[in-house]
Amino acid sequence: MPDSTPLPDWRLPRGVTRGTWEHAQAEDVSRAYDERFSHGAGRELDEVMLEQLLSPPGLVVDLGCGAGRLALPLARRGLRCVGVDLSRAGLAELSQQAAVQALPIHVLLANLVELDAIRDHAADYCISMYSTLGMIRGRANRRQFLEHVRRILKPGGRFVVHVHNRWSNLYQPQSRGWLFANWAQSLLRRDVEAGDKFYDYHDVPNFFLHIFTRREFVGELRKAGFTVEQLLPLSIERQGLLKWPWLLESVRAGGWIAVCRV
User: What is the pTM of this model?
Assistant: First the structure.
């Protein structure tokens, strides 16, 4: 059973905010999150895309796996999977489902900034979907995570990662003011980066998400040593790929899925 004793802020894992930690410790949040996104065009797009990209079969490390919304279908298609998450409840649910379905899935309880338990060149593929990269607070911590991903991939291995687009907030009336306020705070405060957002998200109060611009996202991947082979812009509703991507993609896209090689 997850430990419900509150941690003092100084003991929180690197890059993990209070809201993210409490979300990870809740017994039913991870499962509820997966169930909320278990259907719909966005989920179907992810599964179809990953089925095409993660070929031939090999070992895939799902970074921020939750209760297995992607690890389970990938394992059914013949991939061996390692699910990594901070949620004990989510990993327990994933392990149970893997055992019931006799699927080749192992789980690892770990902070995404601290992946030393995974050896070098262990994986054929890594995935980090549903803007998990943005849930890591601090540019240095996100870079540490990306360096770990590069380290644990085999030469020629593939990394598939999703983030949200900062400018998509223009299409949400309640979020337009945040764009200006966040920009101003990032100039005045050292502990706030442009793109840092705290908000109540479904059952998660004070949820943290760093929201990227196209330039920032691609730049961080390249600085970590990845070659970006494809950058797939998504529609605002995440119902599919963005139509007419040549037309102001950096502002119109709801987010991106990057396909990278080491």
Answer: 0.91
